[in-house]
């Protein structure tokens, strides 16, 4: 009786196509790119675009609107929520969401279809909505005085540093798993667990959870002014409702890009992901590593050791 071939049973095509040296160079390179972007990030420019162009051209000065709940009422809060979400799209605490697109668009299921992609986007959106609603309940319970306290600059910056540093570390850990450097960890998981987290829907749900947590740490003034408006209602239910709309607003552009990819290049991308799954896996891994490095450096290392803001220190941004 012939013995089963155990040598090839667990062969990983990804590791076959990308040898250790190549994976290491790509990984180090993308981490450096993430750090460089974080170091030269001009938050005045991108925050100003959201504040002055998106919010300013639609609903007006959000710093003035923050205290007008008594005049404008609950209905305006939903408009404020949507605009605040859109305004946060390209801020330092939200731009990394675009690193999630490769993982969403490139399903590696052998039966990948547009329906699979749609299920992935639903799985991505659901935790964004749930986390937003939960945080909105918290805001409603806090009320105006409580939100005023957590909106103080030292508090909101500490909150941002903690939340985004942790998210960045998770993204780096996930990226290293995708690159095959943490097999010692994944091998400890049961086959059923590995199979579950290897599906596009499970990955999309985890990505959505990370993006949903962006709102918990976001220090963006427009968002904090919207929180002030929502808290004035002193209602957890209202807070949950408007924060849900905000969550959808912050991913609206990302969802639009995703649907365009699926609509115009869906079959091509699915075929690519099915025939050469190691390539989209590499794209996803690098996106996670780059985005995670950006977060860890921008919100953690740069603040702690004052080694960021290079464009400002060089006098390039004024």
Quick structural gist:
The protein is an all-alpha fold and 318 residues long. The chain has 18 helices and no strands.
Q: Quick one: how many beta strands?
A: 0
Shape: globular
Main structural class: mainly alpha
What fraction of the residues are assigned to beta strands by DSSP? under 5%
Helix content: over 70%
Tell me the series of helices and strands, N- to C-terminal: HHHHHHHHHHHHHHHHHH
Number of self-contained structural domains: 1
Number of helical regions: 18
Quaternary structure state of the chains depicted: single chain
Q: Mean pLDDT, rounded to whole units? A: 88
Structure keywords:
318 residues, 18 helices, mainly alpha, 0% strand, globular
Helix-strand layout with pairing:
Blueprint: H1 6-9, H2 13-17, H3 20-39, H4 43-55, H5 62-65, H6 69-87, H7 101-105, H8 114-150, H9 153-178, H10 183-186, H11 191-197, H12 200-212, H13 214-217, H14 221-231, H15 236-250, H16 252-275, H17 278-305, H18 310-313
Helix pairs in contact: 3-17, 4-6, 6-14, 6-15, 8-12, 8-14, 8-15, 9-17
